[in-house]
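Internal ticket - ligand job 367, flavin-adenine dinucleotide:
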Amino acid sequence: MARSPQVAVVGGGIVGLSTAYALVEQGVAVRLYEAGLPGGGQSAGESRIFRHAHDDPRLVAFVRESRAVWADWAERFGVELVSPDGALAIGDSALERLHVLEQVGGVAARTIAPDELADRMPLLATYAGPAMFDEAGGAIRTRAAIEALTAALGDAVATAEVISIDPREDGTVEVRSVTDRATYSTVVVCAGRETARLARSVGLSLPVRLAAHVRLTFAVKGTAPARVACLQDGSGDFGEVGVYATPMPGNARYAVGLSQTVGVRDDGTFIDAAALRSLDERARAYVARALPGLDPQPVEFVHCWVTDLPWSEDGVAVWEAGPVLFVAGHNLFKQAPSLGRALARAATGGGLAAELMPQARLGEPQQ
Ligand SMILES: Cc1cc2nc3c(=O)[nH]c(=O)nc-3n(C[C@H](O)[C@H](O)[C@H](O)COP(=O)(O)OP(=O)(O)OC[C@H]3O[C@@H](n4cnc5c(N)ncnc54)[C@H](O)[C@@H]3O)c2cc1C
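stdout (structure tokens):
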């Protein structure tokens, strides 16, 4: 006889799917509520960067663990989930982060000379400054990951918006969705932009900063390169100091975005609607200067909400309100597998890892 679900997960982005899958791996009955299509929120699009380089050594260790899970899933699901072409970072900040990687250990990363850089990143203009190569980094095959996890969860995925989360005096939690009412022992909220709103309904105020972001995709001129790495450009040599770029499956298209975001009010209205256009124009201008291997006319756009925490653009934390857990942060795709496992442990009585508690400020640059 099928067991009724003990744990509910709210949100079918990469974090919610990873959490639900980790619960299934533990043999826990789970229901995942997704209001729209799995992977249609902040997890949308075809590519993300997997990189080990971060300012906080604890986060480096956390994503290193995550990389092992990505490899395990790729084998289990029989699909490529992270490209084999690595991740590059250029500029002085790359060397600072390489130092953090060396402190932590266990990550195959090194400085790289201009010739090898040009070979691994044939779309980039001539560059002879400091550069680092992360061998086990690469482009996350986001769509393949969302599809594989959704298929593995099968009937556990319910297409319904959660309307209310109500912790009861008997220690259970009542969840009301558009189409039903059910009771769970624990609820894990991974609702992206909606997480802070749902947290307010149980009396928690999360320090999430809402912003908007644009990423553009460009076609490669001529034949797609056989290999092409992801890129983070902090050099300033091409007129911008915070740029990230990642290939799409097949390498014929390459996505580029400025790390900068555009501030919005709490209700999502823009303070300055033209600011998003300005980011878009700067990204095109950057491509014309730095990436001569691309046609500078964009072929696709991803617009999305960013929900970051005040201590770092890579910050992540989990808040607990009795049997309800809320996760928030930014740049979570790469670490979703280890985050999902940590949330599944916390949801089943194993306790929340100390590093994920808000006071730990995971992701904050360490001295
Ligand atoms: C353009 C862009 C580039 C990025 N680059 C990188 C990168 O290179 N590397 C990296 O690691 N990360 C990157 N990120 C960040 C990363 O994609 C996100 O942090 C991650 O996808 C967030 O996943 P999530 O599951 O937390 O949220 P989401 O994907 O937003 O999922 C939340 C889900 O909850 C659902 N939901 C909300 N409310 C309810 C409700 N009441 N009931 C039911 N369902 C609900 C939504 O429909 C949504 O599907 C990037 C993000 C963007 C947009």
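Auto-summary: The radius of gyration is 20 Å. The chain has two domains: 7-42+145-208+312-360, 87-135+209-308.
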